[in-house]
Amino acid sequence: MENAFSDRITDVPKSFIREILKVTIDKSIISFAGGLPNREFFPVRGLQKAAHDVFEEAGHEILQYTNSEGYPELRQFIADRYRQKDGLDIPVEDILITTGSQQGLDLLGKIFLNKGDDLIIEEPGYLGAIQAFSLYRPRFSPVPVHEGGMDTTALAGVLRERQPKLLYTVTNFQNPSGISYTNENRHAVADLMQGRTCLIIQDDPYGDLRFTGYRKISFKQLLPDNTVLLGSFSKTVAPALRLGWLVAPRPIMEKIVVAKQAADLHTDYLAQRILHRFLLDNDLDTHIASIIRQYGQQKEAMINAIKTYFPANVQCTNPEGGMFLWVTLPEGASSMQLFEMAIAKKVAFVPGTPFYVDRKDSNTLRLNFSCSDESTIVEGIKRLGDSINQLVDN
Amino acid sequence: MENAFSDRITDVPKSFIREILKVTIDKSIISFAGGLPNREFFPVRGLQKAAHDVFEEAGHEILQYTNSEGYPELRQFIADRYRQKDGLDIPVEDILITTGSQQGLDLLGKIFLNKGDDLIIEEPGYLGAIQAFSLYRPRFSPVPVHEGGMDTTALAGVLRERQPKLLYTVTNFQNPSGISYTNENRHAVADLMQGRTCLIIQDDPYGDLRFTGYRKISFKQLLPDNTVLLGSFSKTVAPALRLGWLVAPRPIMEKIVVAKQAADLHTDYLAQRILHRFLLDNDLDTHIASIIRQYGQQKEAMINAIKTYFPANVQCTNPEGGMFLWVTLPEGASSMQLFEMAIAKKVAFVPGTPFYVDRKDSNTLRLNFSCSDESTIVEGIKRLGDSINQLVDN
């Protein structure tokens, strides 16, 4: 069947991270490679009780087919939270429950992208978005991000030369880099986007996991008609349930619902009801506070260990939240080569390469700090520092 | 944003059934329009206990991200069942858990169809498949099906003129028509497909719901390298969990996994674990036997009522299983017009039109018999008979 495949799938490479994670199955390896939330914080008892209770209350109903948009009361919870956290007034009809926020990316690609359409992606950018959009064969326009947000000079340059349909952003504690957009940067980006037909996709899986600083303005406030929000319960409750959401203006939502029906009819309704019950009976912010406390300490431990063990000419970001930080080696150093050396010392990370749409190697790497305790972090960074010294000395 | 949408979504009409189902929300209407399994048979207690038990046994594990292919032991259960029921020896690696079998259709469209590629679809055919495939903009070649299976003369004609990439079939108790392919018909179809690069998609959501007759041979036995199987727990356990599966030869599975990752990373793992626990602790065939008994009686009631109340020149199929039967009015009669008249008498069905890829009206209609008790069925068919007499007399 080899020659029968569609052009879109033939173009997509096998997941690089998948291959890397295979290496890290070895339990003796200290892995900063994963992108997982820390399982210690999964509310096992709370979800178990919620499951029991929804079966008691509505056993037959929660097992039947339901509407494609998702459980109205769960969508109401999400709307209430936007009001409370961001001062946004979002009607329930503008919210759709997705099978993880990953599905939101696929649906948006599906309803917007013709082959060759221009799409702005952050550089470095979220790998899952690159993969999802790649299937619709856009032309990627990468725009660099750094501490403080998107490079607006580069963005202005792209907007002068191209007519992008979509601008994909992870404005808080970005995956992979950990950077956040300042309010000034958000305003500057919005000013450049004003009056265009380009849609801003603001993907915010980590926004609630803020250790320091204050909550920033949403593009939905700045450009309400041209912004789609993606959100997720994967990092605040649990990822296995695959519960995310998408907020879109009415004309876009109509098309999204058609694509959603064709994709999976609706997202697991039992899971929606269990989660909603859990959210009624437990305070999400109290739960999140305990996650933040530990992730924040682990991030500090990693930053401090990097200061101690990495050569002075290696840079790293200092995220205000989330799960990742980003390391930049001296110009010309290969993070792919470093990966081989680090594995020999039994420490793993993800080389920066797959987070760019157009590179074969890079001097950057992503480190995850959510899944290792502080002493493991110190030991892992020490080993990684040794590997970097070895690489740079060569 | 109107002009910014992709060509593929602009081409897809709004769901017709969705609009019809809105009419039937009125509780005083007897509805044969839905496509739902009967909620009385949802194993509420069994799934509640399974949920409790998996949280006890593996609470943290079942809430974490997992692999895209799905829970190996659930896939093993599916493999064992194929061995037991069909004598098929399918390796676990060839099975992927999908977010409902609907997702299987989307993934197959995604990895196979370029715009304009030829695709054979049954006429009438499953609406969800027409919708899912439409997004990839194929050229549909409808081939009629009738009692006994696919029209092989018409199939041979299409194969002479076109180079289809996919042949989509629902071989048992088809949605919408209720027809099944005989063994002879399966062999005849397979003979025509032999030696071609065209892939047969055998979608079998209803196969286990057989009231009479015997299990038929699978295309997977006839053309193993060119057959993809889709299956679902929606009609045998419960649809809300959105748990289906896809069986594909290795080279196809590799591409499917890439598309699956991009679509939703993986299917709800909590749901997979709950279902697997339920299947370990309960005998699925015993459960299915109780469903079959009732659906079979309801189908008989509907067939008998049709004989009593419909004019003699109206035909209907007599399914050996499943949830639907198919009515053909005299030539030239409009099922859309009948729908309006029937709603006035407070009985609903789905006109045949949306099950064809190219018609604005038809003299056919789909009746669901899984969700109404026998006395309701008799009353509803009586009213529908009145409406048909009224229509035909006009």
From TrEMBL, chains A, B:
GO terms for molecular function: pyridoxal phosphate binding; transaminase activity. The keyword Acetylation does not apply. The lineage of its organism: Bacteria, Pseudomonadati, Thermodesulfobacteriota, Desulfobulbia, Desulfobulbales. This is PLP-dependent aminotransferase family protein. Homodimer. Belongs to the class-I pyridoxal-phosphate-dependent aminotransferase family. It comes from the Bacteria. GO terms for biological process: alpha-amino acid metabolic process. The keyword Transferase applies. Signal peptide: none annotated. Keywords: Aminotransferase, Pyridoxal phosphate, Transferase. Its cofactor is pyridoxal 5'-phosphate. InterPro entries: Aminotransferase_I/II_large, Class-I_PLP-dep_aminotransf, PyrdxlP-dep_Trfase, PyrdxlP-dep_Trfase_major, PyrdxlP-dep_Trfase_small. Residues 47-384 form the Aminotransferase class I/classII large domain.
